[in-house]
Amino acid sequence: MLTAPCKAQLWECNKTLIDVAQGRTPADVVIRHATLVNVCTHEVLPQTDIAIAEGRVAYLGLAPHTAEHCIGPDTQVIDAAGAYVAPGFLDGHMHVESSMVGVAEFARAVVPHGTVGVFYDPHECANVCGLDGVRQMALDATRVPLKAMLTTPSCVPAVPGFEDTGSAIGPDDAAKTMRWDSVVGLGEMMNYPGVLAADDHPLGEIDETLRRGYRVTGHYSVPEVDQGLNAYIDSGVSCCHESARPEDVIAKLRLGMYVQLREGSAWNNLATLAPAISGPDADPTLDTRHCCLVTDDDHPATIVHHGHLDQVLALAVSLGIDAVTAIQMVTINTASCFDLEADLGSIAPGKCADLVFLDDLTSFHVSLTMVDGDVVAKDGAALFSPEPFAYPAWMTHTMHLGERISAATFAIPAPEEAGASVRVRAMGMSAGSTLTRELHLDAPVRDGHIEADPTNDLLKVLVFERHHATGTHAAGFVHGFGIHGALAQTVAHDAHNLLVMGDNDADMALAATTLENCGGGEVAVADGHVLGLVELPVCGLMSQGSAAEVADQVSHMEQVWRDMGCTMNSPFMTLGLASLACIPELRLTDRGYVDCTTYRFVPLLVDEKDTAPDTIA
Amino acid sequence: MLTAPCKAQLWECNKTLIDVAQGRTPADVVIRHATLVNVCTHEVLPQTDIAIAEGRVAYLGLAPHTAEHCIGPDTQVIDAAGAYVAPGFLDGHMHVESSMVGVAEFARAVVPHGTVGVFYDPHECANVCGLDGVRQMALDATRVPLKAMLTTPSCVPAVPGFEDTGSAIGPDDAAKTMRWDSVVGLGEMMNYPGVLAADDHPLGEIDETLRRGYRVTGHYSVPEVDQGLNAYIDSGVSCCHESARPEDVIAKLRLGMYVQLREGSAWNNLATLAPAISGPDADPTLDTRHCCLVTDDDHPATIVHHGHLDQVLALAVSLGIDAVTAIQMVTINTASCFDLEADLGSIAPGKCADLVFLDDLTSFHVSLTMVDGDVVAKDGAALFSPEPFAYPAWMTHTMHLGERISAATFAIPAPEEAGASVRVRAMGMSAGSTLTRELHLDAPVRDGHIEADPTNDLLKVLVFERHHATGTHAAGFVHGFGIHGALAQTVAHDAHNLLVMGDNDADMALAATTLENCGGGEVAVADGHVLGLVELPVCGLMSQGSAAEVADQVSHMEQVWRDMGCTMNSPFMTLGLASLACIPELRLTDRGYVDCTTYRFVPLLVDEKDTAPDTIA
Predict the structure, then answer these.
(1) A440–chain B nearest CA distance, Å
(2) How far, in Å, CA of A124 to CA of A495, rounded?
(3) Shortest CA distance to A380 belongs to which of A83, A145, A100, A114?
(4) Any idea what DSSP says for residue A173?
(5) CA distance to partner chain B, nearest, from residue A194 (Å)
(6) Taking CB atoms and an 8 Å cutoff, what residues of chain B touch A228?
(7) Mean pLDDT, all residues of chain A
(8) Which residues of B touch A373 (CB under 8 A)?
(9) Contact A479, A426 (CB under 8 A)
(10) Which residues of B355-375 are buried (b: 16+ CB within 10 A; e: fewer)?
(11) Best mutation target, A44, A210, A233, A325, to test chain B (most B CBs within 10 A)
(12) B102 in contact with A at a CB cutoff of 8 Å?
């Protein structure tokens, strides 16, 4: 049961609602002449009136009935004038930190786009500042109408033993959070190898969640959808947003999962996955009750310039998914996924009055958003504006490098016997994909050091531990970004250590020290000049400015990337996954290269026996 | 969260399931070559294997995958040989007492028909023996594999102030039961006038249920589906089985309710209601996720001779409802209605292994039933057979009449000024309907007494308080049964007082005393002879024999009814509603006639100003 994100619990206000429905007490708000999107019946019902009291729907007047009897002298009457009125949108899996602002600023950005609730997994913050940091985010959230429902980060570190993080979360910690008001489940269980091995740590967290009657959210990203997927679901994980192919969607649905079709800034899965539902070979009678649409990671620029779930809905419909079915995927289905259908996800008597006015069912342009019966956004603007959140100093000073960084720090010694080049492992990365490929490529050796080879788009990348000043760092190579200069960022999933990429050591050093000095963020450097900087002092992940301000900075940075030679869309988000060791195939953490298929460290240099691809496809 | 009706909670056994799915530990049971009815996706999937351990599905092998890797030397392998395998059926609203046997005997009767779980509201027992009696029923249930999930009786008495019962239940009592293992919600809230008036008693019970995170089941039987229905749902009631017209179904679905389409022995609503879904005017895209099929009240003869939810499914399909959609209405939809989808209602990894083998999707003939991974019924026979339940004496001696009954007790004095006849109120009753009509008919006066008029099918009916020996009783008339002689029964909803109907006082007296002496049940008498008797000594409602034995007795009794002139189907069940004052239009309780539209007592004799119908339509 949801304890926090409602103005009043139903048992606290049902007497009033009963009175309002029968005209004995006036409603607080009456919406007249709505074209109701009824997600319970999958219908569009013209001339519907909605009376609201205590933040909940008290009366739904379906034509020819009206809510005139609910109107008193102080009732706010809103004429929808035939506009579509749908339940407010719920994002079933996402990370607020990806927006690079805190929860309140995020809310100001997305609520005008119709998002009334998010199931957020603050595991970026948790990796840096632990559950204390998460609690601050939850505190920030209480100041805005967005229903920020927490799923406790389950994998901090994401891959224990392979990286160093600022904090760690275990079953006992998870158990404690299950009593927090804002917690409704467990965050994405990325440690599927641990689940498949029936390890105590992941199962302990899952069990504490199930025991509380909450749902466990998933992350199953491998194409094996038989024994492994069965075992993963056996654990108690009930939803998953990591599907790469239409057949993954079907397999997960058949095994009873809620499938969260993802369309985020950088992971644009929907066009690939939608055919499972709307493609020419799709079963037209396939039940979609377990399908949801989620964003996972949305960039500030995406939100500010394009929107949030509203634009995902528009895309879904453009891909042939029925409009009301698509709306169900961000309303009733999502509520049901978390057993919250009694309060959220539909416009019906007793439910929270969270709703949106839509111009049409193609663009899904939102003209008004209401949460708990209050108009909280209108014509694209949020009507709430809290003070900047006062983050404690331990969240805004998180750069703790254990070494003084200079150009020399970035030198990679070559083996003594090396000739003009050595064969190295490199991460092959491409836009729009969370996966990397393990490449085996030749890197030049000069003056006893292995160098980048920008002519072949082979760049150096180093990851520095930055939480506990241990001085741990490791080096590798990356292919796919095509820049000259250096880029550094502290948004480096999921440990969020300091990640530096470049084609020369001097620029890399300048990039690193620039971030060290400003508390983290992202920076671009070329030829000794800082070309762009996004300061993210909160955990090295979030700005204290508005989403629009950060979006401007990020847009500038993206222009810088393009000027530096990168053709990738959202390169910053793609680069930020170079260290994410829970997704195949090869990743670099502060401890070194991790083979994310077999879960073992692998060396930088390729052994002659290694058989991975040596060409760039 | 469901605490009792699973062999093991998922968090207690997920390690084993994970091992089984991956072939590291053998399964307890493997079903091979099933044609899976997948209620999550609405698909029928041939060549599916199902591996089971710890009572739960560990692995679902969808072709071309098989569960061969889960088979060990001790694994029980069942070859489904292509049979349809569907989730076991769940009855979302029913009263075990209507089967006239205890829960264990009921289970023996219905489990072979594929019913694996019932959401039962033991309000008949509660009216006689209170929550102590309910606890005994729950105790009986623990001895059989049927998942007997309790919804605490909410309306005991059904209509406070209008009848005398053996016990009463209030908000504090309801709150206590919410901590019982077997309780999953609140039983049907029949007191809709109280809900609409926002009375403390019904709302108190509802609030205690909502506070616990459980669902409140409904009973909204009036055709008003605007302000009243909105207000009723506002209270927190989330499902309803009392729909009389297709438009009631649509209205309730649109207002977010789960609609439980009822097909019981006597209340045959499905043929009337199915067109809302499958009729020529139905919206083919109507979402049916909130539709369930329930029995409410099934007679022992119905169960023994025709079946249970299996026959309801067959009827639904014959009425044009898609077979898989119909199965969803007794599986996943029902589980979802009670927020139990995580454990029940589908065949998927981690879910309870409750399933049925079906010969086809038209007759829905069940050849095997499995609960928690155990084969519990095969080829129509239950494979479990507990000892008769030892009911305490206070449950088997419940006939406490406060007066010595003789023929004189049944005399109804006429007013002194009466002529040859007086105009009386009579309950017009008809088979298959729970409603009565208020009729105004002429009754003959002889020797200063108002008499029955069997030639016009106008019979006398008296109701005697029988719980606390108060001697309270009241008299009225009934039309629709057409018998000569007398019938009496202690199954007289919901107070279950002693109800006696007949055309002469001597037979009525014999009928009454016969039941008094045997502890309750039903009896037919004519011309001084007992023609049929069904002894129901447990609360005056249930036999201690088997369902088959009681069915035989009831069948004999029905033959007796027909011999006595009654053409009604299940007349016993229809007569048993003559005192049910929570359903329109006119009912007789031990305190007198109740106008069940306005909720006031009305006199036997019709005033000249009264305007109700005086003809028999």
Answers:
(1) 33
(2) 7
(3) A114
(4) H
(5) 11
(6) 22
(7) 95
(8) none
(9) yes
(10) bbbbeebeebbbbbbbbbbbe
(11) A233
(12) no
Among A60, A228, A230, beta carbon nearest to B60: A230
Distant-in-sequence, close-in-space partners of A373: CB < 8 Å, separation ≥ 6: A7, A28, A29, A52, A53, A54, A55, A56, A353
Q: Are B188 and B218 in contact (CB under 8 A)?
A: yes
The answer to whether the bond into A595 is cis (omega within 30° of 0) is: no
Helices A123-141 and A103-110: angle between axes, nearest 10 degrees: 80
Q: Which residues of B touch A10 (CB under 8 A)?
A: 210, 236
Rounded CA separation B285/A251 (Å): 24
pLDDT for position B1: 37
Beta strands in B21-55 (DSSP E): 29-38, 43-53
d(CA B536, CA B515): 9
User: What is the rounded average pLDDT for all residues in chain B?
Assistant: 95
- Of A386, A370, A389, give the one whose Cα is nearest residue A378: A370
Cα–Cα distances in angstroms (integers) from residue A369 to residues A10, A102, A110, B368, in the given order? 22, 20, 10, 52
Interface A–B counts its CB contacts (< 8 A) at 212
Q: For A113-134, write each residue's pLDDT tens digit.
A: 999 999 999 999 999 999 999 9
Tokens of A593: 């290269």
pTM metric for this prediction: 0.94
- Residues 386-425 on A with a CB inside 8 Å of B are none
User: What is the rounded average pLDDT of the residues B194-200?
Assistant: 96
A260-283: burial string, b at 16+ Cβ within 10 Å, e else: bbbbbbbbbbbebbbbbbbeeebe
Interface touch B236/A40, C-beta < 8 Å: no
- Give the minimum alpha-carbon distance from B126 to chain A in angstroms, rounded to a whole number: 25
The answer to whether the Cβ–Cβ distance between B45 and A254 falls below 8 Å is: yes
Radius of gyration for chain A, computed over Cα atoms and rounded to the nearest angstrom: 25
Residue A393 CB burial class (10 angstroms; 0-12, 13-18, ≥19): exposed
Asked whether the beta carbons of A558 and A566 are under 8 A apart, the reply is: no
> Rounded distance, CA B512 to CA A423, Å?
100
- Radius of gyration of chain B from its Cα atoms, rounded to whole angstroms: 25
CB B463 within 8 A of CB B497: yes
* Contact between A234 and B45 using a beta-carbon 8 Å cutoff: no
